Amino acid sequence: MPSDEEQTKYILPEDQMPTHWYNIAADLPTPAPPVIHPGTGQPIGPPDLAPLFPMALIMQEVSQDREIEIPEAVREVYKQWRPCPLFRARRLEKALGTPAKIYYKYEGTSPVGSHKPNTAVAQAYYNKIEGTKVITTETGAGQWGSSMAMACAFFDIACRVFMVRISFDQKPYRKGLMQAFGAEIYASPSEETNFGRQVLGETPDTPGSLGMAISEAVEQAATDPDTKYCLGSVLNHVMTHQSIIGLECIEQMKMAGDYPDIVIGCAGGGSNFAGIAFPFIGKMLRGEGDVRVIAVEPAACPSMTRGTYAFDFGDTGMMTPLTKMHTLGSSFIPPPLHAGGLRYHGMSPMVSHLLELGCIEATSIPQVDTFELAQQFTRAEGILPAPETAHAVAIAMTEAMECARTGEEKTILFNLSGHGHFDVQAYIDFNGGKLSNYEYPGELIEAAQRKLPPVDA
Amino acid sequence: MPSDEEQTKYILPEDQMPTHWYNIAADLPTPAPPVIHPGTGQPIGPPDLAPLFPMALIMQEVSQDREIEIPEAVREVYKQWRPCPLFRARRLEKALGTPAKIYYKYEGTSPVGSHKPNTAVAQAYYNKIEGTKVITTETGAGQWGSSMAMACAFFDIACRVFMVRISFDQKPYRKGLMQAFGAEIYASPSEETNFGRQVLGETPDTPGSLGMAISEAVEQAATDPDTKYCLGSVLNHVMTHQSIIGLECIEQMKMAGDYPDIVIGCAGGGSNFAGIAFPFIGKMLRGEGDVRVIAVEPAACPSMTRGTYAFDFGDTGMMTPLTKMHTLGSSFIPPPLHAGGLRYHGMSPMVSHLLELGCIEATSIPQVDTFELAQQFTRAEGILPAPETAHAVAIAMTEAMECARTGEEKTILFNLSGHGHFDVQAYIDFNGGKLSNYEYPGELIEAAQRKLPPVDA
Fold this sequence. Notes:
Two copies of one chain form a homodimer. By secondary structure, chain A is α/β, with parallel strands linked by helices. Chain A has a domain at 71-113 and 237-449: 3-Layer(aba) Sandwich (Rossmann fold), CATH 3.40.50. Chain A is built from 19 helices and 15 strands. Chain A has helices spanning 46-49, 55-61, 72-78, 90-96, 117-129, 143-155, 165-170, 172-180, 194-202, 210-222, 236-242, 244-256, 271-285, 303-306, 349-357, 367-381, 387-406, 424-431, 442-450, and strands at residues 9-10, 20-22, 67-69, 86-88, 101-106, 134-139, 158-164, 184-188, 227-229, 262-266, 292-298, 308-313, 322-327, 361-365, 411-416. In chain A, β12 (308-313) and β13 (322-327) form a beta hairpin. Chain A starts with 8 loop residues before the first strand and ends in a 7-residue tail after the last helix. The interface between A and B is large, with 54 and 54 residues.
């Protein structure tokens, strides 16, 4: 029998799965800035959001409670793939010759291969009990859309997904998965909405963008009382739902008899990063253990490392409220990176606030370097990371290699938020020498920043 | 805390993972027929196989030992994804309104998404310790090739995969995954072998077949002492390695306080079926509990239900020894089913022997019916089964629906051998009304059977 020291993975028993999510708002030294109505310039309240979201989610969005109970029906579904394993990357450590201990939480065991169902299932549940008949949402590469489609199938809600046109055309598999769950999928911009028709009228050949797809999904929810909207990242309640990742990690690190010096996640809208990091940051804020926390973004879409901390729209159509966040400007269209989930102009306001507070660091890495390290990871550990996840893998490996240089025996934990089985084209392009690092799109970002709404709250 | 009765999945602790594989040869009432040399018509011995396989695997092939120890280095790698979860399909049971209890073993949590690494890792290990520098193998859809590529990456062996040309052209993602692991991949038939060049000379536009790819891989191994050949199914040692699936299930059913009345697996070459079924059949043969065991094959490639039990070649090039098995004839080319892993003219000789002994049943199901039920499964349980696996899912659901009719509370266990994330096209075609059930290819099978080698041993 292998000794404890040789253990490869740490799995919580099903009956030790967390029963409550963690809401970091309760532990903040200063609260995050309010959400602003773009018309009035004034903070918005829960009723303003009622056309889009069920009240239970709105109350979670503004909650100051540290713990929010996970409904039993949601926990029952979570048990399909949760608790997720925590791995010790022993073969990778050996390959890197590092004295560092590398752990990764693996969220790819969910039926759709990523962490996204953690919030999709919760959002579908609250919509169901408040009588929602149809859920609209957007998706880029499709991780979020397929999660929402699955959650809607479980709770018997119709699901309508606006999928960025270029992904709709280029990623038939994610589309096919959503259809297998029974969802309706529209290439965005579409003929289904006023905003979509307007964009198509002006630019019939547009490849679409996440910002446009959000505008279409929001428009449909805002104009039909039986229809609500779901968002897969950015918002506080999404971050809270994803906290189950880090809460499990805390228990699993206890099983391993260890505690991380560094916690790493990739960040597009911020949800998988928040999921693994917020519970550890919360402990730090409560004086229960210091930890260095690193959010990783692509060098070509660097909202945290090169953007402005300002009020901005979440979508291209400027239909959403304004939130203070690190943003490249809502009119910025990121380069066609393979990491579609990281191609977002903004960042979760809560993640942004923590960056301003100095609780976390942000770093960026170019695309080619990312895949070079991610592929090395794959050859050691077997798992092929999703292109987004590859950014976290790469920085974790970089930190471990630094330990090899200095001799420090740091404990590194990162979130392996999803597998790349739907995204192999990225690795094909990498191995075919067809990947570009993209130049830093400085001028485009400057132009988009000049269009930021003039709000100072 | 949920009660035991509400548990969704059963996970063995890592330190309770089986330490030995199970070899069913030890429990057979009569031994399986010998393997025959096609030239001499006489049984072959271990030395005849030495050009192709390391001696440790050859000795496993002919072993009569009930238990074969899993080397520690193999167990260390297994821990990357093993023990795999056993699920109770509560939402599916509810959707079907059945009093049956449905359990499924999920092998899709392995890094490549299927059960195939269970034997790939073992084969790579034994090759490594006997000094093999290059491993050749064949792959159809790519489940096996990607597993072998991963195993070779772990044990630092060069891997050369002959991939059926039509899959090479149509399934770039599996190819991309193999390349990410560092394997060389050739479309088969290729210019790399005499057999490949011969076929290309005669039929330059051939789509290839698994039988041809086997011939190419075998030819390279037979002609280079540093190169060995690995096969992903059919052979006894492969069935033995896969027994870890069923061995884990036996322990997990104990955790659930239950025991299966019916065990179900899909069968192409037979390895995932053997994996889940052989340990239960062994218990039955030893008088430790009766169980009905069902092997499921596609109606359009029905080796067990419509083939002959006869000596036949394993490959198209007629380079392999002859084994007695249920076969459609090695010259039969199956219709282009989506379940590429079930498109094989023969069947594992050991599975065939058990069918002759009456220890198992075989049944078949047409393609469209398969996907109809598999998609219903997906909407209830979230997991999208691989097209091969879908055959087992469909028959398990059929049995459960029969229980709904009769009121019987049977316990049904099936092997969910792999996820379908690389095979979504099958579901797209199903939902697009483009799937055919294919007519039973009776005339083609009759023609192939007339070409069976005239051996009677």
